[in-house]
Amino acid sequence: MTILYLHGLESKLSPEKRELLETYGAVLAPDMDYKANPNMITTLQQEYKNQNIDIIIGSSMGGFAGFYLSKLMQTPALLFNPALPYRLNIAQAIPESKLEHSNAIHIVIGAQDKVIKASDNIAHITALLPFTTDLRLSILKELEHGIPLTIFEKEIDLFFKAL
Questions:
Q1: Which phi and psi angles does 105 have, rounded to 5°?
Q2: What is the band of 103 on the pLDDT scale with cuts at 50, 70, 90?
Q3: Listed residue (88, 130, 148) closest to 65, CA to CA
Q4: pLDDT band at 28 (very low <50, low <70, confident <90, very high)
Q5: According to the model, what pLDDT value does residue 87 have?
Q6: What's the angle, vertex CA 136, arms to CA 157 and CA 129, rounded to 5?
Q7: pLDDT of res. 149
Q8: Where are the domains of the chain?
Q9: CA distance 1 to 22
Q10: What are the protein's UniProt keywords (predicted)?
Q11: Sign of the torsion formed by the C-alpha atoms of 149, 133, 4 and 24
């Protein structure tokens, strides 16, 4: 299994989270500069279209990119606090696609997130309905914007068990 992990705006995949993900498969975690590349989703699609990506996992800005990339690549996705309703003033083009999501998407939202407000994210997600796939939405009352290893591990485990 190959997992494509998309980090947030100014973050990287931590060694502890990489080690956890590697128990499920090979991990690709490209270093991305969303500010310098307003076409990051298209860039990622072109870079990985000939590889067998089985799962996309993204956090924050990586969750935003992962949401649309999973649609383009027809791949299941697990997204943590995705920057769907707004992108922190970072311009990112959303590629046109007539495809619908055809694989499971699990979105984890932190009720205490002050960077990407849960209410804004939920409103944006519900505006995208109806989905043609399984959409799981988890709202964690204690979660802020950063994803602690314990929550990351729990949500990863739930996601893979549900596939």
A1: -125, 130
A2: confident
A3: 88
A4: very high
A5: 61
A6: 155
A7: 97
A8: 2-162
A9: 10
A10: Hydrolase
A11: positive
Task: Give CA–CA dist 64/142, Å, rounded.
Answer: 22
Check residue 84 and give its pLDDT. Answer: 86
The DSSP code for 145 is: S
Give the whole-angstrom CA distance, residue 96 versus residue 72: 9
Q: Which amino acid is at 111?
A: A
Helix (H) or strand (E) holding 13: none
CATH 3.40.50.1820 applies to domain 2-162: yes
Angstrom distances, CA of residue 53 to CA of 25, 74, 83, 109, 136: 11, 10, 22, 24, 21
Classify strands 26-28 and 2-6 as parallel, antiparallel or unpaired: parallel
Is the pTM value of this prediction over 0.90?
Answer: yes
pLDDT tens, residue by residue, 48-59: 999 999 999 999
Say if CB 149 and CB 13 are below 8 A apart. no
Q: What is the mean pLDDT of the chain?
A: 90
Type and span of the H or E element at 108 = strand 105-110
Distance CA 107, CA 122 (A): 10
Q: Distance between CA 162 and CA 95 in Å, rounded?
A: 28
